[in-house]
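thread from #wetlab-drylab

HS: before we spend reagent money on co-crystallization trials with guanine, can we at least see a predicted complex? here's what I'd submit
DV: go for it
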Amino acid sequence: MAATILDGLKIASEIRAEVASEVKAMAASGIRPGLAVILVGHNPASEIYVRGKVKSSEEVGIYSEQITPPDSISTEELLALVTDLNRRDEIDGILVQLPLPSQVDSKKILMAVDPRKDVDGFHPVNVGFLSTQRPGLVPCTPAGIIEILKRSAVPIVGQEAVVVGRSDIVGKPTAMLLINGNATVTVCHSKTHDLPGVCRRGDILVAAIGRAGMITRDFVKPGATVIDVGMNKVTDRAEFDRLFAGNAKREEGFRSKGSTLVGDVHPEVAAVAGRLTPVPGGVGPLTIAMLMANTVRAAKLRRGAGIPAFAGERA
Ligand code: GUN
């Protein structure tokens, strides 16, 4: 039987609607959450992401502003921008779009963001809160993965979860959320021995490696829930054929654009998995929805309001 496709667009739009109604309720007490996005230079992928973040803010009623310093900015100049946003009361969330140019010390910049405004959840204080199960701000993509699992009624407690990839942005925080949700968690990476065998233990398999279609059917336990975090642009014909030979719709897009967007999971996995997130339309839309949720959460957190427990955290 083919896997059930988990619709990230639908789940993201439910979350945005919930956020919009919270924003409306806050407006009644004179509070409007505000998000500032710093986009350095002209990275085309970053420009697309940031446009989506600003547009989504408008839709849910969050005040947003975009700051676009040039590529040549120094660490000190960028630090000054962050410090100014830390000080401004109408700004609840600060997001510094990555990657930053090579002359900028990214770690220093992320450390400078006030942890209470750190809607990306990248500051070590928030990383520490997550690992010690204290209320804080959780990275958007991992939080979105947990929302997909919960809202699709995928069991987490006691399940074997395997996370492939150990990045600070996705792999590690996702593993931590799954641990906090009482799964039995294994984290794999490029040096893992017998990767397919380890992955096949997963009732939940999260692929966050950044390699197009690397997770083939022999990595997947029959019936498993497979979460594909990959966003890879395939331009090579042979690679395209390995993934999509015979897929007329993909073929048409590939011919007209010269590329296609592929996750880390090979399409053949749909024949083995029980549930599967598609690319596009799976985890991606959740990242922005959770940024909206984090901005509202930051606005409440900073005003000392009671913070509801987040998915994946214990109350
Ligand atoms: N670049 C790619 N993904 C992200 C993200 O989640 N947050 C930030 N700040 N930059 C990114």
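DV: The mean pLDDT is 95.
HS: ok that's useful, forwarding to the group
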